[in-house]
Amino acid sequence: MSMDKVFEALSSQVRRKVLAYLSATDLTAGEIAERFDISKPSVSKHLSILENAGLIRSERKGQFIHYSLVSDNLVNTLTGFVQEVCPVGRPLRKESRDMARGRRGGEK
C-alpha cells in the first residue's frame, strides 16, 4: 500500500464520510450514493480510489457489489478512532449502525 494513495484517498471529505458509513456495516454502491448529492459515477470514482488505497474492499453478492472497510488496515483503525471523537463522523457512524441493526431485524 502506497502512503501517497492513502493520503490522496483521505484528502476528500466525501471519501472520509464513506469510510464513516462503512465503519459499522457493509453497504452497496447504491446505498452509499443515496447519502450524497453527487452523481453515481462520482461515487464510483471515490469508491475506486478508496479501494485502490487498500482502505475498502468490494464483493459481488448477486447483482450488487457490497463495500466494506479493510478492518486490519492501520489507517482505518486510526480513522475509526478519530470518527468517534469527531462531531461530523459520529452521526454518520450512528446512522450506519442503525442500518446494520435494521438489516439483522429483517428490514432492507
UniProtKB/TrEMBL annotation:
SMART domains assigned: HTH_ARSR
InterPro entries registered for this protein in UniProt = ArsR-like_HTH, HTH_ArsR_DNA-bd_dom, HTH_MetalResp_TranReg, WH-like_DNA-bd_sf, WH_DNA-bd_sf
Q: Which UniProt keywords apply?
A: DNA-binding, Transcription, Transcription regulation
Source species, domain of life: Bacteria
Q: Keyword DNA-binding: yes or no?
A: yes
Gene3D superfamilies attached here? Winged helix-like DNA-binding domain superfamily/Winged helix DNA-binding domain
**A Pfam family recorded for this sequence:** HTH_20
Domain (HTH arsR-type): give its ranges.
1-89
Keyword Transmembrane helix assigned to the entry: answer is no
Identify this protein by name.
Metalloregulator ArsR/SmtB family transcription factor
Q: Which organism is it from?
A: Dongia rigui
Upper lineage:
Bacteria, Pseudomonadati, Pseudomonadota, Alphaproteobacteria, Rhodospirillales
